[in-house]
Automatic annotation (TrEMBL):
<dbReference type="Pfam" id="PF00512">
    <property type="entry name" value="HisKA"/>
</dbReference>
<feature type="domain" description="Histidine kinase">
    <location>
        <begin position="138"/>
        <end position="343"/>
    </location>
</feature>
<dbReference type="GO" id="GO:0000155">
    <property type="term" value="F:phosphorelay sensor kinase activity"/>
</dbReference>
<keyword id="KW-0597">Phosphoprotein</keyword>
<dbReference type="InterPro" id="IPR003660">
    <property type="entry name" value="HAMP_dom"/>
</dbReference>
<protein>
    <recommendedName>
        <fullName>histidine kinase</fullName>
        <ecNumber>2.7.13.3</ecNumber>
    </recommendedName>
</protein>
<dbReference type="Pfam" id="PF00672">
    <property type="entry name" value="HAMP"/>
</dbReference>
<dbReference type="InterPro" id="IPR003594">
    <property type="entry name" value="HATPase_dom"/>
</dbReference>
<dbReference type="InterPro" id="IPR036890">
    <property type="entry name" value="HATPase_C_sf"/>
</dbReference>
<dbReference type="InterPro" id="IPR004358">
    <property type="entry name" value="Sig_transdc_His_kin-like_C"/>
</dbReference>
<dbReference type="Pfam" id="PF02518">
    <property type="entry name" value="HATPase_c"/>
</dbReference>
<keyword id="KW-0472">Membrane</keyword>
<keyword id="KW-1133">Transmembrane helix</keyword>
<dbReference type="InterPro" id="IPR036097">
    <property type="entry name" value="HisK_dim/P_sf"/>
</dbReference>
<keyword id="KW-0902">Two-component regulatory system</keyword>
<feature type="transmembrane region" description="Helical">
    <location>
        <begin position="53"/>
        <end position="74"/>
    </location>
</feature>
<dbReference type="InterPro" id="IPR050428">
    <property type="entry name" value="TCS_sensor_his_kinase"/>
</dbReference>
Length: 343
């Protein structure tokens, strides 16, 4: 039996019991009033009077029962109408993939709260779908250039039999470089798909030790750079490998956009990490966009990279309950500030 029929049955039975109770009480009250007026033996002496008094009560009772059944059905139908609309909306969204549909939340009861929760879920799903479409579109655009370059170089190697050894080496090096760029880009894209990690993977992490480890690794990749560090012992709760990825991206960025043999200053205190470089800095017009996917400032476009490094940093930091920001450094360069909740 459906919920609608069960509600109708319960409402109808309750109304019917009320009608029968009222009519029975009214009948006996009427009989007592009649006896008190005409004497206790009048009804027994004139049987027709019993019929005269009884049949109207029976008719009203039957009519009341019918009305109770109709009232029960109407009550159930009215109460469950928002649920029916919610079901229809869910089927419509499943069939059409239209996440723009929203429920009416004008009701102030529990069903209105249910509709509001349903709309909140749709908002989240719509934002996620938009982000996924944008990621696919941007990724397709970014993959096209290195794929075309690799294909061109490989085709030249296969078709040109008279190439000199030097030309072959240059084309091979270019193809390998393109493949390395593709590998990095795909790795970054896979990182962006990790919106969060299961809670079971989170643990107490010494952030200062992670920073020191990543500074040493980045310094090995940029041997001409100098890294000046001041690290206060700091413990945070998080996923170690993801935090390491965020730190590596920030430090690599600072080294990449600094002059040769420049200094990068790394400070960690009370869960706040600041990384300052002495490069050309970030133009004010680019500051609002540096953490967006695939965004690259004009000065950064000639350098290798996909524009995903800082977007990955932002995603990782926010998934750990922290914040990250960029600002021009006094004089020259830029400062990246990362703040995480301290355990």
């Amino acid at each position: 039996m459906s919920l609608r029929w069960r509600l109708a049955l319960v409402s109808g039975v309750a109304a019917a019991i009320s009608v029968v109770t009222v009519m029975v009480v009214a009948y006996f009250v009427a009989c007592e009033q009649f006896e008190s007026t005409y004497g206790p033996t009048m009804l027994e002496q004139v049987p027709e009077l019993q019929d005269t008094l009884g049949w109207p009560f029976v008719a009203v009772t039957v009519g009341g029962l019918v009305l109770a059944a109709l009232l029960g059905w109407f009550t159930a139908h009215t109460a469950l109408r928002p649920v029916s609309e919610l079901t229809t909306a869910a089927h419509r969204i499943a069939d059409t993939r239209d996440l723009a549909h929203r429920m009416d939340v004008s009701r102030g009861d529990e069903l209105g709260s249910l509709a509001e929760s349903f709309n909140t879920m749709l908002d989240a799903l719509e934002r996620s779908a938009i982000a996924q479409r944008r990621l696919v579109t941007d990724a397709s655009h970014e993959l096209r250039t290195p794929l075309t370059a690799v294909r061109t170089n490989v085709e030249l190697l296969l078709r040109s039999e008279n190439l000199s050894l030097q030309d072959r080496e240059e084309l091979s090096t270019a193809a390998i470089g393109g493949l390395a760029e593709l590998t990095t880009l795909l790795s970054d894209l896979m990182e962006l798909t990790r919106a969060g990690e299961p809670e079971i993977l989170a643990e107490e992490v010494r952030l200062d030790a992670l920073v020191r480890e990543q500074v040493d690794r980045v310094a090995a990749r940029w041997p001409l750079m100098s890294f000046e560090t001041s690290l206060t012992p700091t413990t945070v709760r998080g996923v170690s490998d993801r935090l390491s990825r965020a730190l590596a991206n920030i430090l690599d960025n600072a080294a990449k956009y600094s002059p040769h043999a420049a200094n990068v200053e790394v400070r960690l205190k009370r869960g706040v990490l600041t990384v300052r470089d002495h490069g050309s800095g970030i133009p004010p017009g680019d500051l609002p966009y540096v953490f967006e996917r695939f965004y690259r400032a004009a000065a950064a476009r000639p350098k290798p990279g996909s524009g995903l490094g800082l977007a990955i940093v932002k995603q990782i930091v926010e998934s750990h309950g922290g914040t990250v920001s960029a600002a021009p450094a006094p004089g020259e360069g830029a400062i990246i500030r990362l703040a995480l909740p301290v355990s």
